[in-house]
């Protein structure tokens, strides 16, 4: 079966942690993505896209707020929503439960999806890779439905993004599994 295409990109960055960042720095970098999280930025028009964003993104936003007991919110301002400090702290302490390796995988996925919240949904098995990728590309998909597109280019881009997202997510799960496994030696 093997890893999905794109796995080499994750693994390539992981072994040597080329940036030599420690756990705190990795967590801070991931939490910083909240400021520009795709699903927190909303359009004011056209009405059909406003509705689409509301219907598709609000459930994820509400899920994240319930799951972590925080406030996030969304905004149509170019500055985005102002994320409360407590929200950052709560999400940072959640991320602290992951290993340094897993955090590199998380950062990779967040960068693919341009969304911390979609990544959390993926890791929590609230979303599939296909759903997360589609939600991260809602606006592009809307434009394509409306105006059409260069078929092969779009399909290739979508497959690539899915493969990278799947690989990163799998990498995080594998890192998390291995840290949680304790080998017990049989007692004499």
Automatic annotation (TrEMBL):
One of its GO terms (biological process) is mitochondrial proton-transporting ATP synthase complex assembly. GO terms for cellular component: mitochondrion. Belongs to the ATP12 family. Keywords: Chaperone, Mitochondrion, Transit peptide. Residues 1-22 are annotated as: Disordered. This is ATP synthase mitochondrial F1 complex assembly factor 2. It is found in: Mitochondrion. PANTHER family: ATP SYNTHASE MITOCHONDRIAL F1 COMPLEX ASSEMBLY FACTOR 2 (PTHR21013:SF10), ATP SYNTHASE MITOCHONDRIAL F1 COMPLEX ASSEMBLY FACTOR 2/ATP12 PROTEIN, MITOCHONDRIAL PRECURSOR (PTHR21013). Pfam families: ATP12. The keyword Chaperone applies.
């Amino acid at each position: 079966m093997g890893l999905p295409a794109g796995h080499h990109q994750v693994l390539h960055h992981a072994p040597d942690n080329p940036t030599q960042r420690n756990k705190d720095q990795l967590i801070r970098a991931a939490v910083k993505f909240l400021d520009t999280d795709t699903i927190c930025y909303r359009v004011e028009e056209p009405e059909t896209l406003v509705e689409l964003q509301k219907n598709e993104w609000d459930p994820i936003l509400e899920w994240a707020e319930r799951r972590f007991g925080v406030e996030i919110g969304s905004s149509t301002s170019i500055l985005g929503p102002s994320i409360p400090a407590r929200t950052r702290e709560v999400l940072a302490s959640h991320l602290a439960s992951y290993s340094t390796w897993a955090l590199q995988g998380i950062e990779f996925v967040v960068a693919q999806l341009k969304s911390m919240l979609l990544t959390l949904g993926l890791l929590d098995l609230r979303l599939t890779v296909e759903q997360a990728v589609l939600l991260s590309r809602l606006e592009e998909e809307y434009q394509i439905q409306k105006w059409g597109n260069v078929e092969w280019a779009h399909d290739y881009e979508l497959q690539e993004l899915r493969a990278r997202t799947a690989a990163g997510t799998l990498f995080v799960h594998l890192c998390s599994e291995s840290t949680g496994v304790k080998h017990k030696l049989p007692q004499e």
